[in-house]
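My main concern about presentation is that the manuscript never shows what a single data entry looks like. In essence, backbone conformation is discretised, so a fold becomes a row of integers matching the chain in length. An entry of this sort, consisting of the sequence and the corresponding backbone structure tokens, reads as follows:
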Amino acid sequence: MKIGYARVSTTDQSLAIQRAALLAAGVQEDHLFEERVSGRTADDRPELQRCIAFARSGDQLFVTKLDRFSRSVRDLHNLLAELDAKGVGFRCLDQAIDTTSSSGRLTLGILSSVAEFELAIRAERQREGIAAAKARNTYKARRSTIDLDRVRDLSARMKPKEAAAVMGVSRASIYRALAAIRQEAA
């Protein structure tokens, strides 16, 4: 059986292109798992966990791109080991990877290492740019988009975890907002 997994990082992005490609590859609508989440690990992606739990020996899991499936080489290898232990194959459409063949596994390993290297280089350049801007006194951090008045109001009545759920943000965002509120008061 062909099973599909599609993911975008934010709620305003569309799954339409991934969905169309997976359906064209033969994945049936009721075997397609989709989510809008930017998860660092597989545990942060509940639909991916449901997808893997759904897969049975002999099935193949299809994705459109590697970065939609895993966030790091370690994450990729952990997920593939989990699929392999279940006897489930893995196919990546855009990179033409099929883990049921030895050349497919080799290609996958090379591509995932290159992707992680690119991510590390991009992060390094960003840190260097921020350090240079700070040295020139021109650095401006991204402005917070969280409503501090609403955080103040909700925090007076509930715990940060509950306020985060009500606002649809992470608990860390609430704690950062509370720190900003305390800093304003000082």
Q: What stands out?
A: The longest strand covers residues 2-8. The radius of gyration is 21 Å. The mean pLDDT is 87. The chain has two domains: 2-113, 148-185.
